[in-house]
């Protein structure tokens, strides 16, 4: 088989999923992750539909995910006095099964650690492709050569920037920012999956959620691109506090609690748009290639993309010149289902009238039809049985 030594950048979801399949097919896999260790907890992510479940079952992890699932969380949207206005079912926000990102990463890591080499606390700083391999330089470790390199390092992908071009050419701001703070309470996870309720409150262009399906606190607000350093958490906390300073309901108490919350992440709602996911000996998978923040497709796209990319390489006996175009074609067609979906406009309408219209829509038959369409779209791919290659 050709191109047996491969480097995967990123150890969250897409990276370990890709590492799992590549190692099963006989590739020598190294995974590099800039964080010093696996990130525990984090926001909840979900899977939905036959195709995504099939991939997880073929990985042998679906039962583990079910065992550690968070359970569904219905969101009740309330006015400033706490009176209910509308309800969003946890079946819509949480898919068929929902799990904390850190728990999923741990499951994937345990499935791959014995067959793959993981390097934590390091990152790629330079890539130079030759006719035969890719010369890779790292921030801390010595330079190495790999046959193929894969960017699974998220919407702010370093690999994408090094190979395809600057982030602003591909990552498009959707007019909103979001913040997640705090993981789901440990007691909830210990009690196992169950139906829960959280509460959210809208002001024009803003949404605050407490005890929600993605994190203990969640915020969303309309704003142009903001100028702040991604590693300056203090500045980000100030921005959030200023944006919600005049919002009522229980938001003042939430902001006071936020000061003591160690888990904090603020970013823009953004969509990655690329003409191709591959270039020479480098390919992108997951959010680095087709991310669309909070649109409900990211995690599913990541595991399906990893499955297809590794499977096409195995089917082509490691020949990336054959496998990469096939992967690109399949995933470009599949990821079209996210379209121009912008969750900000739906969750945080910019006017009081827009909030009332959204609340009406949530109780209408139109919303139920939209939910069914989205669920069906996630199965709109001809999923090849690549694992059958192992029995040949």
Describe this structure in words.
There is one protein chain. This protein has one domain (5-391): FAD/NAD(P)-binding domain. The protein is 35% helix and 24% strand. It is built from 15 helices and 18 strands. It has helices spanning 14-24, 50-59, 62-67, 90-93, 101-112, 158-163, 186-190, 233-243, 251-258, 287-290, 298-315, 320-334, 343-347, 352-362, 365-377; strands spanning 5-9, 28-33, 44-47, 73-78, 84-88, 97-100, 117-120, 124-129, 134-138, 144-146, 148-151, 171-181, 196-203, 206-210, 217-222, 264-272, 278-279, 282-284. The strands form 4 sheets. A 7-stranded mixed sheet has the order 5-4-13-14-15-12-16, sandwiched between helices. Strands 7-2-1-11-18-17 form a 6-stranded mixed sheet. Helix 1 (14-24) packs parallel to helix 11, helix 2 packs across helix 11 and helix 11 packs antiparallel against helix 12 (320-334). The longest helix is centred in the C-terminal third of the chain and has 18 residues, at 298-315. The protein is globular and about 65 Å long.
């Amino acid at each position: 088989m050709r191109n047996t030594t491969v480097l995967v950048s990123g150890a969250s979801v897409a990276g370990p999923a890709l590492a799992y399949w590549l190692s099963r097919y006989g590739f020598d896999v190294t995974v590099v992750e800039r964080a010093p260790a696996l990130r525990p907890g984090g926001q909840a992510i979900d899977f939905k539909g036959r195709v995504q479940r099939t991939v997880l079952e073929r990985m042998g992890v679906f039962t583990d995910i079910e065992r550690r699932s968070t359970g569904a969380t219905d969101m009740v949207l309330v006015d400033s006095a706490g009176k209910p206005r509308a309800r969003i079912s946890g079946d819509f926000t949480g898919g068929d099964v929902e799990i904390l990102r850190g728990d999923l990463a741990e499951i994937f890591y345990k499935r791959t650690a014995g067959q793959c080499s993981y390097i934590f606390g390091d990152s790629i700083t330079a890539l130079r492709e030759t006719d035969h391999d890719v010369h890779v330089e790292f921030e801390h470790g010595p330079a190495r050569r790999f046959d193929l390199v894969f960017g699974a390092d998220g919407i702010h992908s370093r690999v994408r920037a090094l190979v395809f071009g600057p982030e602003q050419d591909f990552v498009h701001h959707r007019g909103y920012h979001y913040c997640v703070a705090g993981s789901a309470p440990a007691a909830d996870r210990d009690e196992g999956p169950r139906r829960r309720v959280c509460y959210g409150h809208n002001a024009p262009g803003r949404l605050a959620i407490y005890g929600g399906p993605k994190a203990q606190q969640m915020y969303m607000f309309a704003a142009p691109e903001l100028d702040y350093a991604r590693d300056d958490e203090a500045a980000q906390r100030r921005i959030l506090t200023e944006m919600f300073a005049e919002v009522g309901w229980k938001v003042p108490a939430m902001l006071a609690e936020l000061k003591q919350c160690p888990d904090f992440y603020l970013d823009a709602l953004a969509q990655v748009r690329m003409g191709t996911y591959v270039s020479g000996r480098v390919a992108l998978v997951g959010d680095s290639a087709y991310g669309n923040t909070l649109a409900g497709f990211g995690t599913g796209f990541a595991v399906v993309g990893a499955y297809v990319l590794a499977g096409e390489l195995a089917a082509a006996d490691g020949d990336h010149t054959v496998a990469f175009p096939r992967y690109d074609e399949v995933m470009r067609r599949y990821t079209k289902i996210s379209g121009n979906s912008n969750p900000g406009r739906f969750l945080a309408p910019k006017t009081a009238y827009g909030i009332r219209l959204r609340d009406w829509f949530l109780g209408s038959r139109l919303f139920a039809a939209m939910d069914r369409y989205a669920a069906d779209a996630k199965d709109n791919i001809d999923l090849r049985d690549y694992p059958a290659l192992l029995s040949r």
